Amino acid sequence: MAVEQSQSTRPQLTARIPEFFKDPVTIFACCIVFAFFFLGFFGEYLAPYKITALDMTHRFGAPSLAHWLGTDNLGRDTFSRVLAGTRVALTVSILAIGASVSCGIVLGLLAGYGPRWLDNLLMLLLDSIYSFPYIMLALAAITLFGSSQFIVVLVVAITTMPTYARLIRTSTLSVRNHEYILAARSMNIGHLQIVLRHILPNVIGPVFILVSMDIPVVITVEAALSFLGLGVPPPAPSWGRMLNDGYTLIRQTPWLVIAGGIPLMLTTLGFTLLGEKLRDVLDPKLQVRRA
Amino acid sequence: MSSKMEMEKNAPVLEINNLSVGFNGARGQAIAVKDVSLTVPPGKVVGIVGESGSGKTTLISAALGLISRQTAEITGKVKFEGRDILNMSERELRAIRGTDIAMIFQDPMTALNPSMSIGTLMTDIQYRDRGVSMTEKRRKAVEMLRHVGIPDPESRLTQYPHEFSGGMRQRICIAMALLGQPRLLIADEPTTALDVTMEAQIIHLLRKLQRDFHTSIVFVSHNLGIIAEICDYVAVLYAGCLVEQGEVDHIFHNPQHPYTKALLACDPALLPEQVTDFPAIPGEVPGPFDRPTGCIFQARCNLAADICRQVSPPLRPVEANHAAACHMAKGI
Amino acid sequence: MWLYALQRFGMALLVCVLSVTVLFCIAYVIPGDPTAIALGPRATPAMREALRIRMGLGEPIYIQLYHFFSSLLRGDLGVDVWSNRPVIDIVKETLPKTMILAVTGLGWAAALGIPLGCYSAIRRNKLDDRIIGIFSIAMISTPSFLTAIYALLVFAVTLNWLPAIGAGEPGNFGDQVVHLILPAFAIGFAWVGYLSRLVRATMLEVLNETHIRFSRAFGLPEWKITLKYALKIAVLPTITLLGMAYGGLLSSAVFAEIIFNRPGVGQSALAAVNTRNYPVMMGLTLSTIFVFTMCTLIADLLVAALDPKIRKGL
User: Fold this and answer.
1) What is the pTM of this model?
2) Are B95 and B89 in contact (CB under 8 A)?
3) Model ipTM?
4) How far C239 CA lies from chain B's nearest CA (Å)?
5) B with C: how many residue pairs have Cβ under 8 Å apart?
6) What are the CA-CA distances from residue A112 to residues A171, A181, A195, A208 (Å)?
7) Which of residues 116-135 of C touch A (CB under 8 A)?
8) pLDDT tens, C118-142?
9) Is B284 inside a domain boundary?
10) Using one digit for the tens of pLDDT, what is the confidence trace for A104-152?
11) Given CA atoms C277, C278, C283, C287 in this order, what sign does their dihedral have?
12) CATH number at residue A91
C-alpha cells in the first residue's frame, strides 16, 4: 500500500517541478529563501565593517556610499549589522523549529495512535497552548528565568508545537485504520515499530510545508522579543534589536527602522510564498491553521 | 393555425445536434462528448445510459449551458423549445432554469443546503413570483411536498435537511424541481445513492409525477434495470459517443451495437441466479486523450474488422425508431 | 443546544483550571526560593519573609493549590510587590483598554477582510483576485509590530496626521478615537489578509458543493447564492477562527500598546517583566487566559447557534 502510494505520486511530482519554477513569484520566493540561508552562514564575512566596530565620529550617519544604510547611535554600520543579523534569525529558527517539530511529531503520534482519553487530554492541552498569546507566555517566562537565547527558542518551540502535533494527529488518525497497519498488527509487530516504520513515513510529508510557513513566524517572534529588549541579548545584531534602537530614535534616524524591518518583511514574504506554493503543489487540501 | 398548434405540440422539447465537448488541459484537448445528437419529445422519458466516465453528466451539463465556454470547447447546437441554449447569455439561461428546465442530482445528501430549513429553501426558489405572499408560497410548497409523498408536510417545513433520510431528501429535491412546473426535468442518476427499496419508490414517484404534470424527463443512469422500467427512449453512450439509440423495447430486445449487447449481458439483474463466471467486457475504455480513428469501441469488440479501424461508423437506422452506430449492424 | 452549551462551558472551565494549575506549578514549584522568584532579586529580606507567611509556604503543594484557587475565586490575585496595590485592580484597569483596542483592530479587519474574501472567491483567478491575493499575502507577512512602527513613522512622524503616543485625554471621546486609529490599524493589518485568504478558501470550497449547483439549477441570482447560500456556511469556520484568534490578537495589542505608549495590559506586563514584579505578571496572565477561554466559548456557541445541525441536533 505504502509503495503503491509513493509510486502513484512520484511521477506526478517530477512532472510538476518545471511548472513549479515557471511562476516568477516562486522564483522570487526561492531567491529570498536561498539568500536567507546563504547570509545566515556567510553574512558576517561579507559585511563591509565589523559589526561591533564603533565609530563615534559617524554617529546617526544618514545612508551614504560608505555606509549604505547609514549608521546607528554608536556609529556602527547598519548594513553590516543587517547582514550579520541573519545569523541570529537563522539560528533561532533552526533550533526552535527543530524542537517544535520533534515534540509536535511525538505528541501528534501519541494523540493519534494512543488511546482515546490520551488523545482528548492532549488535544485539550494543545488547544490551550495554541491559542494562548505567545507574548504573555514569553513575558512570564522571562520574568521567571531572565532573557536568553534559550528562553526565546523555548517559547517559540512551545507556541508553534501544537500546529505540528495537530497535523500529525489528524493524518495518523486517518492512517491508523488502513489495512497495512491492521496487517502489521496481526503479524504481532510492536506498537513502536508500527508507529516508526509504518505510520511516521506516511504522515510526515505535510510537515515540510508547515515548516516553510512557520520559519517566518519564528523569525518574527524572535524579532518581536528582541524589539522589547527581551530576546537574544546584545551585542548580537538581531533585527528586532535594531528596530528597537531605531524606534527610540525614530525622529532622528528613520533609516534604522527601515533597515531592520525590510529584511524581516522580505524573509517572511519569501517563506510564506514558498510555503503556499509548496502546499498548492504537494497537498492542495491542507488547511493550515495559523495566527 | 391548428396544424401549427399540432406541430408545436409534437415539437421536441430538447434537441441536441452534433454536440461535442472538449476540455483544454495541459496535455492537449480531452474529448468528453463527441458528436452527440439526441431528441427529447414532449411528455416522454429519455434515458441516457453508460458506464461512469462515459460523458453522461458532461453531456447534460453542456446541454443546459452549465459548462463555461472558458474552460471547454463546445460545438454543435442545443435547442430548448426552439431556442438556442448554447448562445444564450447567463441572464437568459437563469430565466430558463427552474421554470422551464429543472434538475435533480445524484446525491440527495449533499444537494440541499444544510444551513437552511426546507421551508426557506422551497420559498426562496419561488422568488420569481413577486406579487405572491409568503403564506401562498408556503402553501404551494406544502402542496408539492404532499404530492411527492412527504407525510405531515406543514410541520416539516421548519425542519432542516439533516433531519430527513436520504429518500426523503430526494423527494424534497423532486418537489423543489417540480415547483416551477418545468417542461423538462433532468434527473442525473437520482437513485444511485439510495438503497434498493428507496430506489423503487423514487422511480415509481417520478413515473407518477411525469404523468400528472406531463413533464419530459431526461433520466441519466448506469443501471439498465431502472432505465428499462421508467424510460420510453434510450440512448447508449460509450466514451462520449452515442453508439445506439431507440425505443426502450427495441434496445432491450433487439440490441444491435456490440457494446449494448455486452452491457446487457453484464447486467446482474438479467443474469441467471447462479453464475460462476461473472461476464465482463474485456479491455479498457479509451482515454479522452488517445481516441482511436474509426470506431470508438473497436479495441474491445469481437466483431471488429478493417473498416472499423478506419472509418467511424455513423448512426444508422436499423428499424423504426432504432439506430445504431456500428458497421456490422444490419440496416434497413 | 443547552446540553451542548453546558458541555462547552465545562470544557472552558477545564481549560482554565488546567492552565492555571500549570502556571501555578511552574511558578511555585520550581527549585529555589519561591519568594525570591516571586519578588525578584531586588526584594528585601523583610519583604520575602512577609510573602513567605502570606503564601503559606511549607504546607504541602495541594494545600497551597487549594489556597491559591480559593483566593482566586474571591477575586484575590495578590498585591503588586512594589506599590502594594491589589493586582485585581490593575487588571480591572488595564484589561478593558486592551480589549477595546483588540476588538477595534479585529473589527475593521473583519469588516474589510471578509467581503474581500467573498469578492475574491467570486472573481477567482481573475486579475483582481490575483491582486487581492498578493496583497493579502504581503499583509500576512508583515509582523504587526513592524506595521505599528511603520505606521508611526509614516502617519505620525513624517506626515503628522495622527498623534503618535498615548491613549488620548480621559473623558475626551473624540481624542481617544483619534488615538485609537493607528494602533487599531496596526493590529488589524495582517488580519485583513489572513481573513480574506481564509474566507476565499472556504467560500471556494462551499461554492463547489452540490447544493450550490442545485440552487443554480433553479436560476437563483448569483449574488443571492453567494451571499445567502454560501456565506452562511463559509462564515462558520471564520467565526471559530476569530474565537481562536484572541491569542495572536492580544500579542499584537501588547506591541501596539508599547509602541504607541498606550496604557493597557501590554505596558503593565512589560513594566512587570522589567521590575520582576511577579504577582502582577501572574495576574495579567491569568486574566488573559480567562478572557481567551471566554472568547473561544462565545465563538463556539455562536457557531452552534448558526449551525442547525448542532442547534437542533443535540
Assistant:
1) 0.75
2) no
3) 0.74
4) 15
5) 77
6) 8, 13, 10, 19
7) 134
8) 888 888 778 888 888 888 888 888 8
9) yes
10) 999 988 888 888 888 888 888 887 777 677 777 788 777 777 777 788 8
11) positive
12) 1.10.3720.10
